[in-house]
Amino acid sequence: MDVLLLLAGVLCAALGGEIFVRGVLSIASTLRIAPGIVAATLAAFATSAPELAVSVTSALDQHSALGVGDALGSNVANIALVGGLALLLGSTVSHHASSKRYLTTALYAPIITAGFLYDGELSRLESTILLSVFLVWLVLTVRDARQDRSTLEPSGQSNSTWRTIFNLLSGLALLITAGLLVAAHAPPLARWFGISEFVIGATVVAVGTSMPEIAVVIVSRLKRTDDVGLGTLIGSNIFNGLAIVPIASLITPPQLTFTPVLVELLFGLLSVLIIAVPPARLQSRTKGIYLLALYVAHVVLVTSS
């Protein structure tokens, strides 16, 4: 039964990704906002819904370590695994001013989090600080969107508002379903091997809740709208680290062993550093190979610890 539900999750991801990306492109065209900005905010927040659901549910059940592991592990899976595959398939990273801010924020987030988690817990005060950083980033991103809207010309495409809303909502529903199905039915297999909650969250559940991002990135590559796919990954990374982790910690402050947490944060930081290297110094496909190698090293290290 678990296998069938896993396959159903993959099918939902494929279908939901196609419909959702279509909706993102449509809303970007209608509002005259760069697709990358829409992806880094609306699409990123939407595709992070499974991580939010897992983290909040785990925190309410007094298992916040699982949720923190999922959010931090999803960041590694998003950038190193999903981003690596996208770059290997030929995606390119935008170095627009707003994109650089996303990358800078994604670089600082794990450093700040590591400092807060050094004592093995994330207090409610520290969680509030992380959320404040997230809100500052969000305000600056909205400002970018307003500036872009004043410079972009109407696309001339006729987009039905109701069709756009339908695509976004139905695609999102399928993506969330995919993430939750994989996240719910993959961990029982891992528990047979006696793997800890944090490790399960950082690997098996993380990949499961990254299914929406995987689907969006693949569809974006096929449609040659790389800003949507990679913008979603970076935005999701920021949302996971600066919003989901502190929200779960506000509910139930987690008690964690610092070493495995540091491993997740370091791999997340290294992943973003590779993405941020200018194309003149490192070609996209080479970045993809490095990122995939980094993800393999991450899985080996986390599961053996």
Question: What would you say this structure looks like, in words?
Answer:
There is one protein chain. This protein has helices at about 1-30, 35-45, 50-60, 65-90, 95-115, 125-150, 160-185, 185-190, 195-210, 210-220, 225-250, 260-275, 285-305. With about 300 residues, the protein is mainly α. It has a single domain, classed as Up-down Bundle (A middle domain of Talin 1), CATH 1.20.1420. The longest helix is centred in the N-terminal third of the chain and has 30 residues, at about 1-30. The radius of gyration is 18 Å and the shape is globular.
Q: Would you kindly provide a brief summary of this structure?
A:
The chain has 305 residues and is mostly helical.
- How does the helix and strand content classify structurally? mainly alpha
Assembly of the depicted chains: single chain
Specify the CATH class: Mainly Alpha
**From the 3D coordinates, which CATH architecture would you assign?**
Up-down Bundle
Main sheet summary: none
Shape annotation: globular
State the fourth-level CATH superfamily: NCX, central ion-binding region
Beta percentage is: under 5%
**How many domains, in number, for the residues?**
1
Helix share bin? over 70%
Instruction: Compute the number of helices.
Output: 13
Low-confidence stretches: 154-158
